[in-house]
Design a protein that fits this description.
The protein is mainly α. Helices cover 59% and strands 0% of the residues. Helix 1 packs antiparallel against helix 2, helix 2 crosses helix 6 and helix 4 crosses helix 6. The chain binds heme C.
Length: 136
């Protein structure tokens, strides 16, 4: 039941973007990813804001960040969110078509996701402990 309420809520949260080109990606995300990746908690997985930020900081531009996420979704290999991997283990592979992987990568990188209040402090701790390699 909590799950159902959550899905309904998450659909509503992104519904206002329906006019944008990313509608399909956001619907897919709601269906296949939102159960774990939420907006402001990291109970099951890093929040959307964190997934985008870590990839943008590491790869420096949207195209490279999208390509990396797309490949991760296709192969399930080479995760870069090391603190999250240590905490949860590598994300279980979700069955997706190549097109769906591209749409989801686009959804994650092209949208501005809400920043959780706790994020700044949390991220700083990971940076200071050297767990996040910025690659530059
Ligand atoms: C069963 C829970 C679960 C589901 C469902 C899930 N994820 Fe994840 N995801 C995780 C966890 C846990 C991590 C952190 C560990 C890791 O990075 O592999 C993660 C990490 C990620 C990462 C970062 C990987 C990296 O480089 O470290 C991306 C991108 C991602 N998820 C996208 C998605 C997308 C898109 C979907 C929907 C198709 C999805 N996830 C569905 C649990 C989930």
């Amino acid at each position: 039941m909590r799950y159902l309420v959550f899905l309904l809520l998450s659909t509503a949260l992104y519904a206002h973007e329906d006019a944008a080109a990313h509608t399909h990606g956001s619907e897919l995300f709601n269906q296949k990813c939102f159960a774990c990746h939420r907006l402001d908690t990291q109970k099951y997985a890093p929040p959307l804001f964190a997934v985008k930020k870590v990839h943008m900081d590491r790869y420096g531009n949207k195209t490279a960040a999208k390509t990396k996420i797309e490949n991760f979704l296709k192969t399930g290999e080479d995760p870069i969110m090391q603190p999250a991997v240590q905490k949860f283990g590598v994300m279980p592979k979700v069955s997706l078509s190549a097109k769906e992987c591209a749409l989801l990568a686009e959804f994650l990188i092209e949208n501005d996701h809400p920043k959780p209040q706790w994020f700044q402090k949390h991220y700083k701790q990971h940076l200071q402990s050297g767990e996040l390699d910025h690659g530059h």
